[in-house]
Amino acid sequence: MNITIEMYGRLKHVFGHDTLVWKTEAITVKDIYLELCEQHHCVDESNIIRPIIDDTFCQWQSKVTEYNVLGFLPPASGG
Predict the structure, then answer these.
(1) Which domains does the chain have, with CATH numbers?
(2) Are 5 and 35 in contact (CB under 8 A)?
(3) Which of 7, 36, 42, 71 gives 52 a disulfide partner, CB atoms 3.0 to 4.6 angstroms apart?
(4) One digit per residue, pLDDT tens: the chain, 79 residues?
(5) Other C-beta atoms lying within 10 Å of the C-beta of residue 67
(6) Backbone phi, psi, residue 68, to 5°
(7) What string of H, E and C letters represents the secondary structure of the chain?
(8) What per-residue confidence (pLDDT) applies to 17?
(9) CA atoms 77, 48, 54, 25: torsion sign
(10) 8 A C-beta contact, residue 53 and residue 70
């Protein structure tokens, strides 16, 4: 299935996109995120990143369908 993924904050730079379509057989948010990390050679930061499905915060174990928009929100800082 193809999943639309939105990156927020510094993750836009880490993954090189603010929005991308990801082809996957994975069904959980965590598995999709780990695929992205492996493909982009980045560290798993799921302990500090909040996952989002269709503009609503979700759990890492949540299941994703082809019709969902998945997002990853890192912690924010600044003033």
Answers:
(1) 2-73 (3.10.20.30)
(2) no
(3) 71
(4) 999 999 999 999 988 889 999 999 999 999 999 999 999 999 999 999 999 999 999 999 999 998 899 999 998 865 4
(5) 9
(6) -85, 155
(7) CEEEEEECCCHHHHHCCCEEEEECCCCEHHHHHHHHHHHHCCCCCCCCCEEEECCEECCCCCECCCCCEEEEECCCCCC
(8) 87
(9) positive
(10) yes
